[in-house]
Write a structure and sequence with these properties.
Blueprint (H helix, E strand, L loop, with lengths): L5 H21 L39 E5 H6 L5 H6 L32 E5 L2 E2 L18 E7 L4 H4 L6 E7 L5 E11 L6 E11 L3 E12 L2 E2 L26 E5 L2 E4 L7 E3 L2 E3 L6 E2 L13 E3 L2 E15 L2 E18 L3 E4 L29 E4 L5 E22 L2 E24 L1 H7 L3 E4 L2 E4 L25 H7 E26 L2 E19 L2 H5 L10 E22 L2 E15 L3 E15 L2 E12 L3 H5 L3 E3 L16 H9 L24 E3 L8 E12 L7 E17 L3 H10 L3 H4 L2 E3 L5 E6 L2 E18 L7 E17 L7 E2 L4 E2 L2 E2 L3 E11 L2 E10 L2 E4 L20 E2 L2 E2 L2 E4 L2 E12 L3 E8 L27 E9 L1
Parallel strand pairs: 2-5, 31-35
Antiparallel strand pairs: 1-4, 2-3, 4-5, 6-7, 6-49, 7-8, 8-16, 9-15, 10-11, 10-19, 11-14, 12-13, 16-17, 17-20, 18-19, 20-21, 21-24, 22-23, 24-25, 25-26, 26-27, 27-28, 28-29, 29-32, 30-31, 32-33, 33-36, 34-35, 36-37, 37-38, 37-41, 39-40, 41-42, 42-47, 43-46, 44-45, 47-48, 48-49
Length: 955
């Protein structure tokens, strides 16, 4: 293996030299045990404040399971973003990340319990962060440099925090009370010499008796990995080679030529004027598979981005009982995705055929042709499609907090204003201006030695028009033509969140088990946002899908109360017995009000055993996109139930179709031919639904925490959890709408369908509705063992696992539930078991950590099934599997284990050097034939060993 980046090679060399020199100069090392981290102790028995409760308590272990990742743990991962750290925890499912290229936008999210990122609430310092228009939070807006720890509440918490806390809560705690100066750098890359990451951070703080201030500046640069540079992603479908390449060749293609499809091959001899070549019929050859285009290699496998952040946080004690707090953050992300050049065409899926009078048309009557209009295509590899984002996030919080005493009772209070805004500017490069394309392939001829656009043969010249030759061989489209037909779309997005909060907590009265405690508070919040597409995109004049602007806002007022009721303590059979109650009232401007409550308990029958449980209601308010989305084009595959060649057609359907005006003998027509239910010719409409209501849920947990007296340093926790969601928001498919209209006779569904006079569906409104149900259940187990210190150093072992026993869903409440556990669907791996196991060793100034990350195997439907066992495709593991319903081929995605290692050494000048490798054994992800674009799901690691060096200097 060769390290191609000189900077990384030099940095590692420096680290090794520094370590060797120091060891030789200091002699014997001092034995020193590494402090236990929060990740090392998931039960968190020593914490004071825990996410999931507003009540401050000496015993911080609540009735709800909380996982804490502290800064030491984050730094041991060798990762440069908080999103990557969170996406590796065992309770996480599938969420968007940097491996999403086609369909990604540079954001990264978390989806606890595989319930979608919009059902996981993300807080920063206990306060809401700005969400996207779809209701999720882009974790890339939060720089890793400012994080002190991350608390993950693996339970519902709408009674405490309000909307979105269905699957759980992620609370990111920023650095506080830092004193001194710290500089950090990270240099890394894959063994293949790509995917470089460079990070530099500087943090300084100052503390006095009455104040503290912290500043942090960071920059992260993460470069791309190309799909063509990995075997698993260099072809559209691995194992099928060029048979899956695109018919939209990078050579000019004629789809309606004499004798069939024709193509202008590379090196074809041009005819016509010098500098303006055209190609005669004799220059073309029949299209064959050798001219199909491998578009996969042009895509990013890992998308690049750069993040720059400035953070400040301060506290000033106005008096002994009154404190002013403020913090602010500015984060800028620049990210990019890349796809192969646009598969531009005229007449295949649109009306932009080449005029018979075009200078470049080989059938032009001037050349002895029949003057036919040419159906054409040309993949514009002369310009890749590039999508760029510039996202600027601003956060500000100011508040007062204090305490007071009434009698012998102490109370804490706080009031504050929280403001978050994210402004995003997108550039789309490589899409075509279809108005100019149409003009460019219109009539053209030679005037004064130049090819010009004309209104008709011998007619007026069209000023500003550049004749376009889509029949050029690969790379033959001139820059002048590209400049005329291409344009850069400029889109703008904004998300804004603004809230006022006030909280009060304290003790009420003495109970047998301790003090009856409470917390109560109010919140007033407003959410707003918009999506303003480029005017050309909104008008539908581009080669891509059009969409209309989205803009909307809603506000809400909330009030909550929480009680902690300690009934017993220090008695036989109940070293501790306490209950917790909470309820929250929320009043939304769009859908009305809702009340959500919870009940929890903690019981210690003996000192070393804690039994805990919780029951809670939850809800998720519909986000701005769901409510206010403007019409957006979507091209979907569907079968028209009214078509006479539809297989499931019956007398009821035929009668309802006739009553709706569908003519006799109607046959669905698609751009792929009659009788084939392919992608619709006309774009259907995705849109918002202002009448959408909230999703509702009920969560239950029951677990135990065991710390045996006879094994010091051992902690074990086991929790059962269950989440049932009703009224889940989902968008009906075209097939479902057609079935409800014509098979069930429900007119409210028929109103979503628009047909032409000939019966062809011209439009269909696809809008989200509260239809679906989801039921999930499983177990979490955490084991932590810190051995007594030995002469060989200190050892800590950690196991963090999540077992999914149930993940059932139904599109509507009346449908039969279907299980997804252990199955793979596109961008949706439903692992039965995920686990992280680690061992950490420290001896004096030396340390090492080893982590194994495990994902269980999955099954997916086999998309390649041969009818002849003697001639199989040979791709799926069980291609000829049969069930009672017939052929049901299946492919097995094997279990995957990744290994990460890090070595660290504290050098004498108050610095630390770290060397690490993630995916040490270069484990390849399992091939998934239903995966989109890359032959493996983006939740798996990008193939290759990632090597890195970190240097931390403290002053």
């Amino acid at each position: 293996m060769t390290l191609k980046t000189t900077k990384l090679r030099d940095a590692i060399t420096f680290a090794l030299v520094a370590g060797t020199t120091t060891l030789a100069g200091t002699g014997a090392a001092f034995a020193q045990a590494a402090p236990a981290t929060s990740m090392d102790n998931p039960t968190q028995l020593d914490r004071i404040e825990v996410t999931g409760s507003r009540i401050r308590s000496v015993d911080a272990e609540t009735s709800q399971p909380v996982l804490v990742l502290d800064r030491d743990y984050i730094e041991r991962t060798g990762l440069t973003s908080v999103a990557e750290v969170l996406q590796r925890i065992s309770a996480n499912g599938a969420a968007i990340n940097r491996t999403f290229n086609n369909g990604g936008d540079g954001s990264s999210e978390i989806a606890l319990r595989n319930l979608g990122s919009s059902r996981t609430l993300v807080l920063v310092d206990g306060r809401r962060w700005v969400s996207t228009l779809t209701g999720s939070v882009d974790l890339n807006t939060i720089p890793a440099a400012v994080i002190e720890r991350i608390e993950v509440l693996k339970d519902g918490a709408s009674s405490i925090y309000g909307s979105d806390a269905i699957a759980g809560v992620v609370n990111i705690i920023t650095r506080n009370d830092f004193d001194g100066f710290e500089a950090r750098t990270h240099l890394g890359q894959y063994g293949e010499g790509d995917g470089e990451r460079n990070t530099i951070e500087a943090t300084m703080g100052s503390t006095t008796d009455r104040s503290n201030v912290v500043f942090s500046l960071s920059r992260v640069e993460e470069k791309a990995v190309m799909a063509g540079d990995r075997t698993i992603s260099e072809d559209p479908i691995i194992g099928l080679g060029s048979s899956q390449y695109s018919g939209y060749s990078n050579n000019g293609r004629i789809w309606n030529g004499d004798g069939g499809s024709l193509i202008v091959p590379p090196g074809a001899p041009p005819s016509g004027l010098a500098g303006n070549p055209r190609y005669a019929l004799e220059d073309t050859v029949p299209f064959g598979p050798q001219y199909a285009y491998n578009y996969a290699k042009d895509n990013y496998l890992l998308t690049p981005q750069t993040r720059t952040a400035l953070y400040a946080k301060g506290r000033f004690d106005i008096s002994d009982n009154l404190t002013f707090r403020a913090d602010a953050l500015y984060n800028e992300r620049r990210s990019e995705q890349q796809l192969a050049g646009f598969p531009l065409n005229g007449g295949v899926s649109n009306d932009f055929t080449m005029s018979g009078d075009s200078y470049y048309n080989p059938y032009n009557p001037l050349y002895g042709g029949d003057g036919r209009e040419v159906i054409w295509s040309h993949r514009l590899t002369e310009q890749a499609r590039v999508y760029q984002q510039n996202v600027k996030t601003i956060h500000t919080y100011v508040g007062l907090e204090g305490s007071f005493e009434v009698g012998s009772r102490y109370f804490d209070w706080d009031v504050g204003y929280n403001f978050n805004k994210s402004d995003q500017e997108d550039a789309q490069i490589g899409d075509a201006n279809m108005l100019n394309v149409a003009a460019g392939v219109g009539p053209s001829e030679v005037r004064n030695g130049e090819v010009v656009c004309v209104t008709a043969p011998g007619g007026d010249i069209i000023e500003g028009c550049v004749p376009f030759n889509p029949l050029s061989p690969a790379g033959g489209v001139t820059q002048e033509m590209l400049d005329y037909i291409l344009f850069t779309a400029q889109d703008a997005f904004q998300n804004r969140s603004e809230s006022f909060t006030a909280n009060l907590s304290g003790e009420i009265t003495e109970l047998p088990g301790g003090m009856l405690a409470f917390a109560a508070g109010v919140e007033s919040r407003k959410e707003s946002g918009f999506d303003r597409p480029d005017a050309f995109v909104a008008a539908g004049f581009t080669s891509g899908n059009s969409r209309q602007p989205t803009e909307g806002a809603y506000d809400l007022d909330e009030v909550y109360a929480e009680l902690l009721i300690p009934l017993l303590s220090d008695v036989t059979g109940a070293q501790l017995l306490e209950f917790s109650l909470a309820s929250r009232y929320s009043d939304y401007s769009n859908f009305g009000d809702t009340v959500n409550s919870k009940f929890g308990f903690k019981w210690k029958p003996i000192e070393s055993l804690l039994v805990r449980g919780n029951w809670s209601e939850g809800f998720r308010a519909p986000p701005i996109t769901t409510l206010f989305r403007g019409r957006a084009d979507t091209f979907t595959q569907f079968g028209d139930i009214c078509s006479e060649d539809f297989g499931g057609r019956n007398d009821t359907i035929a009668a309802n179709c006739a009553a709706a005006g569908v003519p006799d003998g109607f046959i669905q027509r698609t751009n792929q031919g009659e009788g084939y239910f392919g992608q619709t010719i006309y774009p259907f409409s995705l849109g918002g639904n202002a009448n959408a209501g909230p999703e509702t849920s009920v969560s239950k947990t029951l677990g135990l925490v065991y710390s045996p007296d006879f094994v010091q340093g051992l902690d074990i926790s086991l929790d059962w959890w269950s989440i049932d969601i009703e009224n889940a928001l989902s968008t009906p498919t075209a097939a479902y709408i057609l079935d409800q209209c014509y098979a069930e006779g429900l007119q409210e569904w028929c109103s979503l369908i628009t047909r032409q006079a000939d019966g062809q569906i011209f439009d269909m409104q696809l809008v989200p509705q509260n239809l679906s149900v989801i039921e999930v259940e499983g177990y979490d187990m955490n084991v932590r063992y810190r051995m007594p210190d030995t002469a060989y150093g200190g050892f800590t072992f950690v196991l963090d696992t999540s077992y999914m026993s149930k993940w059932d869903s139904a599109f509507t409440a009346g449908d039969e539930l279907e299980s997804a556990v252990g199955n793979y669907y596109q961008n949706d791996p439903n692992w039965r078991l995920r686990a992280n196991a680690s061992v950490d060793w420290s001896l004096g100034d030396f340390g090492m950590s080893w982590t194994a990350r495990y994902n269980s195997g999955l099954n997916e439907a086999c998309p390649f099934i041969s009818d002849d066992p003697s001639d199989p495709f040979g791709l799926c593991s069980d291609e000829f599997r049969r069930t009672e319903d017939g052929a049901d081929g299946r492919n097995r995605l094997g279990a995957t284990t990744y290994h990460d290692v890090q070595f660290r050494y504290n050098v004498p000048w108050n610095a630390t050097v770290k060397l690490g490798a993630n995916n040490v054994f270069k484990k390849e992800p399992p091939i998934a034939y239903n995966a989109f674009a890359n032959n493996f799901d983006p939740q798996y690691d990008v193939p290759g060993r990632y090597l890195y060096m970190e240097y931390v200097q403290r002053f």
